[in-house]
Design goal:
alpha/beta, five-stranded parallel β-sheet, Rossmann fold, two-stranded antiparallel ribbon, single chain
């Protein structure tokens, strides 16, 4: 597929919705996205399945990607990750806090292999603050941001259940941040490609 990101190589270690949605947006723009799944697969495959290990939700946020199954807990996975990181432009992750480091796919480990790597990680509460070690997902984000209170209109809090609104928004902002970082990296290599202000 051709597009604005044609030639960009992405390793997508994310699962469920937010990270994979960022990956599918990059794939839609022409990037070559390879999804790395554990041997049991992304659990989102099993939610409202329409076929064995396939669901509409999973397909919706993973279409257009290649897929590889690797047990990152096994020592031999490290060599694959090291080789893949050398030829990768972008890495996506949305593990619970501390998991990426335990699996050897955290920024510090991969940037030591490939300093030009763009690493995009989504966490529920960021990397600083009192909640930084907590896991989370869409409904928790809806509650913590006040969306449920707003939807309740003065009554009991009510979630938006027709779509995973905070997961999708997070994925869109991840893709936006990655596209911006790719542009900045390109300018660093070829400064004359910069924008000329309109008069």
């Amino acid at each position: 597929m051709t597009g604005a990101l044609s030639g960009v190589r992405v390793l997508d270690f994310s699962e469920y919705i937010a990270g994979p949605y960022a990956g599918v947006m990059l794939a839609d723009m022409g990037a070559q996205v390879t999804k790395i799944e554990p041997p049991h697969g992304d659990f989102w495959r099993l939610t409202n399945s329409i076929a064995p290990s396939e669901s509409r939700g999973f397909i919706g946020v993973n279409r257009g990607k290649r897929s590889v199954s690797i047990d990152l807990k096994k020592p031999e996975a490290g060599e694959f990750i090291r080789r893949a990181a050398l030829y990768t432009d972008v890495m996506l992750a949305n593990y619970r806090p501390g998991v990426a480091a335990r699996l050897g796919v955290d920024y510090q480990t991969l940037a030591a292999i490939n300093p030009r790597l763009i690493y995009c990680e989504n966490t529920a509460f960021g990397n600083a603050g009192p909640y930084k070690d907590r896991a989370g997902y869409d409904l928790i984000s809806q509650a913590m941001t006040g969306i449920m209170a707003f939807e309740g209109a003065g009554g009991p809090p009510r979630p938006i259940i027709t779509t995973s609104v905070t997961d999708l928004a997070a994925g869109m902002f991840m893709a936006y941040a990655i596209a911006s970082a790719l542009y900045q990296a390109r300018l660093a290599l070829v400064p004359e490609l910069g924008f000329v202000p309109l008069k």
